[in-house]
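# nightly structure sweep
# worker-07 picked up a monomer target from the shared queue
# config: single-sequence mode, recycle default, output format = structure tokens
# input follows
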Amino acid sequence: MTGAAGHAETAPRPVLATSEPVMIPMAEGRFLVRAWQIPDADGTTVGEHLSLTASGQREDISATAPLVRLHSECLTGDVFGSYRCDCGPQLHLGLERIAAEGGTLVYLRRHEGRGIGLVNKLRAYQLQDGGADTVEANELLGLPAEARDWGAAATILHELGLQRIRLLSNNPLKAEQLAGLGIEVTDMVHHEVAARPENHDYLATKRDRMEHRLLHVDD
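# output follows
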């Protein structure tokens, strides 16, 4: 198992700081929210992330395999509602499902553009407008198609006592990465939202070139 910087990780990273859980009511439900400061894979920078646990459920439910969503930050989709991706709808659907069933959503910052950052993400968009798919656009910029680091997510799950989980995701790579960091994924729970004309090609590339299990994207 390697982190984004290519260094093998054999144990969760230290938590530099964490808040106490605070109740935050949202449109999807009520959640206990905690902030976490955890070193990035390079060991020199620090990311701040959130965990959102369904209200009425204690944070440590290690005797079961609760529902968990690892959601990568997407400013354009999560905040501004961009139709170029499915991130915003996936975030809100994940919160709805966890509010109804119980579980935790981990919101991972510093994951913009699958880990390439906001400036490079918008540069990649320009290349996509010229005909490149999402993988090709990153490669034309000299960047990997997938640069996200899941070490911080594993640390948060360990801290919450969530070593066995049902992962709310269509991306098998997440389960593989978590397994290398001591998190057992007992089940991959399908999590797909409807495609739009604006993000159809984006979703088809995730399915065809990145092995995402998307069942409702037309050829």
